[in-house]
């Protein structure tokens, strides 16, 4: 069993560690099919061997070649550490600066088997959200971080550590870019080749930025989505007896079960892969599991009748479940579902992100490897069936929304009936959850703020929970009723968070807050560290899925209607602005959520250590991190954002935002264009 000191000592070369290959008792990523030519295979092998002295090439080349041909990628399993991956307390990491130790802690949390989807393939969530491309990169990064001073910055190119470069103490300790590809070459096929060659990487959102905190990270957002869907579609805050049907129990989608119960409804989630289903059940996130469709329908009826909150995992295909719900309606006239969505990983539809209803899980995994073209055809056939059942149920009274996973986008590409007559480029028959639900919340400046207690002590988490709730309660007394509703949802969440046992991996918490709330919480936690009330530094961060962090025309910016939904200035500006305003590390990614080539997004980590310098950084950076997106949304014509940024300017004399003048008389346009 290796130690943290050994992990941080760099690549183990003398002697080489034994090649244990794939560990059989953990889930593994689907086999990739990059379709490399003979010359490209040669290049992939040459690129992988660059990490090692020539004296080891004869030993490593054959096994790397075997990995490439057997799994479609060179993961370098030989160099996977034997030490249990988890977020160890920050003081246990060998380092010269705690800023570097905080990054090491977050990296190891992303690779914790309790957290990561495919830990040996360095995939945190989403089927292909990589932390690194191979284990040599992990070893080098940990070594660099352990040696780093506060006058150096680690530069990361798509998983590859380019090295430590001189910088300022005020500079980020790490700058991360993932998948920065020339736009005309940002296609799925090109990605598969580039990843196999080891030259680019899909970091999802918080996988490649080292900021994932387990499915809790999305539970709260999912709970808010379901609550606000009830308010919008069902006209009620009370979801007891209401049924929410969806799919997916992976790293992100696994949040749906817990969120449904917290929101007070009946959540039924289909999952084809038994491993994540069992994992969520063992973690207590799923109350019940069944592979019997008859039993599933029976339990829905019982829970509806008794109005008992329930999270039930159906081990089977979501298309079968939708079609059975439709059949029950046609037979009895009873609509058993009120709200519906989908969280299959359709950003990655042909490599394990979506399993066609015509095949078993095992058959699908086999076919995607042996006959990729036939597999694509079957996925598209399945999507058409999928949408047909949803359409019929929606006509009967169910409310459905797209969860930003490219479901409607890929269904459209498959020829399914999802067109919105007269709709714009980002609009479909059903709204995305941003267009109808979360977009208004983003425009008010609210988004997923999170923190990690680096001590690993649950007591510190409890203290910070109380700090956050107290701060929000104080602010909420002085805001409008609309803002207060958002604050109250989050105060309730944070006051009840401990009892829901949501911690998986690091001692972390998430809540939705606006600009003022984020800054005040960060400053209060920093003061608690200074006063010794919190025993160790705290990392603050957020999901990239936020007010400013992501340009995604089919998700985060799908409610931007001035023609700029396909522009990525906001996410890039956010990355750069966070970097020179005090972030400990920053990241910018191509892809995330909706898929490669469809999104630009970025994130940050900032270490609070109780110092005045940390307070200054947090205040400056967090204010920018929210105002940037609110200003952009205001300029696009969003009235919530207009009001929010006006109030922010009143509170900060140094903030001056260009405000739009809306066209008040449409006839002005008509006359001009007719002339």
What does this structure look like?
With about 675 residues, this protein is of the alpha/beta class. Helices cover about 45% and strands about 10% of the residues. Helix 11 packs parallel to helix 14 and helix 13 (about 360-370) crosses helix 14. The longest helix has 25 residues, at about 370-395. It starts with a helix and ends with a helix. Pathway: Amino-acid degradation; L-histidine degradation into L-glutamate; N-formimidoyl-L-glutamate from L-histidine: step 2/3. One of its GO terms (biological process) is L-histidine catabolic process.
Short summary of the structure?
Pathway: Amino-acid degradation; L-histidine degradation into L-glutamate; N-formimidoyl-L-glutamate from L-histidine: step 2/3. The protein has 675 residues and is an alpha/beta fold.
Oligomer: single chain
Total number of beta strands: 17
Percent of residues in beta strands: 5-15%
Low-confidence stretches: none
Number of helices: 23
What's the story with the biggest beta sheet?
Answer: 9 strands, mixed
Helix content: 40-55%
- Distance from first to last alpha carbon: 79 Å
- Please tell me what the overall shape is: globular
Instruction: Give the helix/strand class.
Output: alpha/beta
Radius of gyration from the alpha-carbon trace, in angstroms: 24 Å
Look at the structure and give the mean pLDDT: 94
């Amino acid at each position: 069993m290796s130690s943290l000191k050994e992990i941080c000592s760099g690549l183990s070369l003398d002697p080489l560690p034994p090649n244990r290959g794939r560990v059989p008792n953990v889930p593994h990523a689907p086999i990739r099919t990059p379709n490399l030519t003979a010359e490209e295979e040669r290049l992939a092998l040459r690129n992988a061997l660059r990490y090692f002295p020539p004296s080891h090439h004869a030993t490593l080349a054959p096994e790397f070649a075997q990995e490439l041909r057997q799994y479609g990628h060179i993961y370098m399993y030989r160099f996977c550490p034997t030490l249990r991956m988890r977020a160890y307390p920050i003081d246990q990491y060998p380092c010269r600066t705690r800023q570097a130790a905080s990054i090491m802690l977050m990296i190891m949390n992303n690779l914790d088997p309790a957290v990561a989807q495919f830990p040996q393939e360095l995939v945190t969530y989403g089927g292909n959200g990589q932390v690194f491309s191979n284990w040599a990169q992990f070893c080098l990064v940990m070594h660099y971080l352990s040696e780093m001073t506060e006058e150096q910055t680690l530069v990361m190119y798509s998983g590859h550590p380019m090295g430590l470069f001189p910088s300022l103490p005020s500079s980020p300790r790490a700058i991360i870019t993932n998948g920065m590809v020339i736009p005309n070459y940002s296609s799925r096929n090109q990605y598969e080749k580039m990843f196999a060659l080891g030259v680019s990487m899909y970091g999802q959102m918080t996988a490649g930025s080292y900021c994932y905190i387990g499915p809790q990270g999305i539970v709260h957002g999912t709970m808010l989505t379901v609550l606000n869907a009830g308010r919008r579609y069902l006209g009620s805050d009370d979801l007891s007896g209401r049924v929410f049907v969806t799919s997916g129990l992976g790293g992100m989608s696994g949040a749906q079960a817990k969120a449904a119960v917290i929101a007070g409804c009946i959540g039924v989630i289909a999952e084809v892969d038994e491993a994540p289903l069992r994992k969520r059940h063992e973690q207590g996130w799923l109350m019940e599991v069944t592979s019997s469709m008859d039993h599933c329908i029976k339990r829905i009826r019982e829970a509806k009748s008794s109005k008992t909150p329930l999270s039930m995992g159906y081990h089977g295909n979501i298309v079968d479940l939708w079609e059975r719900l439709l059949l029950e309606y046609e037979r009895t006239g009873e609509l058993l579902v009120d709200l519906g969505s989908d969280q299959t990983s359709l950003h990655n539809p042909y490599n394990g992100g979506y399993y066609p209803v015509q095949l078993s899980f095992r058959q699908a995994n086999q076919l995607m490897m042996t006959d990729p073209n036939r597999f694509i055809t079957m996925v598209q056939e399945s999507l058409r069936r999928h949408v047909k059942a949803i359409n019929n149920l929606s006509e009967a009274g169910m409310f459905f929304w797209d969860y930003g996973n490219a479901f409607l986008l890929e269904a459209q590409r498959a020829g399914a009936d999802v067109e919105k007559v007269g709709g714009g480029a980002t609009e479909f028959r059903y709204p995305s959850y941003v267009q109808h639900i979360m977009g208004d919340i983003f425009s008010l400046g609210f988004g997923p703020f999170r923190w990690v207690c680096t001590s690993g002590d649950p007591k510190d988490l409890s203290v910070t929970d109380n700090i956050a709730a107290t701060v929000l309660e104080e602010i909420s007394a002085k805001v409008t009723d609309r803002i207060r509703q958002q604050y109250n949802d989050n105060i309730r969440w944070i006051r009840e968070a401990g009892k829901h046992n949501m911690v998986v991996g690091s001692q972390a918490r998430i809540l939705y807050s606006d600009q003022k709330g984020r800054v005040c919480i960060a400053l209060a936690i920093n003061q608690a560290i200074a006063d010794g009330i919190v025993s160790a530094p705290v990392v603050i961060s957020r999901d990239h899925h936020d007010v400013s962090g992501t340009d995604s025309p089919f998700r985060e910016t799908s409610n931007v209607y001035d023609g700029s939904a396909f522009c990525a200035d906001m996410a890039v500006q956010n990355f750069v602005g966070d970097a020179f305003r005090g972030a400990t590390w920053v990241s910018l990614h191509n892809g995330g959520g909706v898929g490669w080539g469809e999104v630009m997004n970025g994130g940050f980590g900032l270490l609070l250590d109780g110092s005045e310098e940390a307070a200054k950084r947090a205040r400056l950076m967090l204010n920018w991190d929210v105002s940037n997106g609110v200003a952009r949304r205001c300029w696009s014509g969003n009235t919530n954002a207009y009001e929010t940024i006006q109030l922010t300017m009143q509170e900060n004399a140094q903030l001056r935002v260009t405000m739009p003048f809306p066209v008040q008389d449409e006839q002005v346009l008509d006359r001009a264009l007719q002339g």
